[in-house]
Hints:
single chain, binds adenosine-5'-triphosphate, about 325 residues
Amino acid sequence: MIEVTNLTKRYGSHVAVDDLSFTVRPGVVTGFLGPNGAGKSTTMRVILGLDRPTVGRALVNGRPFEEHRAPLREIGALLDAKGTHPARSARDHLLALAATTGISKRRVAEVLDLVGLSEVADRRSGGFSLGMGQRLGIASALLGDPHTVMLDEPVNGLDPEGILWIRKLLKSLADEGRTVLVSSHLMSEMALTAEHFIIVGRGRLIADMSGSELTAMTKPSSVRVRSPHAGRLRDLLGRDATDIVIRGDDLFDVVGMDADEIGARAWSAQLQLQELTPARASLEDIFIGLTEDAVEYHGATDSTNNTHELESS
Ligand SMILES: Nc1ncnc2c1ncn2[C@@H]1O[C@H](COP(=O)(O)OP(=O)(O)OP(=O)(O)O)[C@@H](O)[C@H]1O
């Protein structure tokens, strides 16, 4: 379990984390979400005792990180995948880490196997691809068989196979009853990976809820209608629908009437339909809506295209 209470972190006059409180519970993958610069890494560094809070505190399994006698057995973390010595092999890197914390050589072989690096374990890690580096970072995090696992942007730069692998690994760790906190600014990826979400923007808490609670927050869904008789259909439906939004000559969205009802009315009026599609806000749309005002730097893309990433500068 991770408990963050009234955490504030200032760098000079800049407030990176602003009175943030949340609890990460075992058994589910918790996504830590927010645009670039929202304060996720800073919060994670405080949790790991790498940064001191200005105000507030962070506890790992009931205690500050530095008060644990064997911290690697409490929490395993991946903050910077490039944190290994490039001349060292993956195996030597893990053996050195294991030696300083009383972890067996057998466990090193186990985690190499778990992350799929056994075959390249004796190569210099400096020659590793980004994905292999991420796997090694995750192996280091899991070395102490910790009850709590915290990964900062683990899917950054990974190919689809690597992303799928991390997604499955996180789910299996949570299914074993571990506490799993994973940060990302890739909203679409988190929607697929996590069940619970802590969303931050400009250092502040925006939401702390499950995926279903987030979905329940959405506005009434609309139904997209395409018809060669769009004008007549709009007149017909407009009397009872909450709203009708024209999208094109033959295309419009209906709010406040479900697809069955629209279909039935079009049928009785003998008006042909070419499309009838209920639209529901995706988790990704909800994330983007919630964090819109907290994005420090907007890129040239907008949230209506398929760029599933909040842009920074
Ligand atoms: N050591 C530091 N000194 C000064 N400012 C910092 C420092 N570390 C972080 N910041 C600032 O604090 C804010 C939060 O940064 P942080 O890296 O925690 O955000 P993040 O949510 O992890 O972003 P990203 O997704 O880009 O990693 C940013 O505005 C950042 O510029």
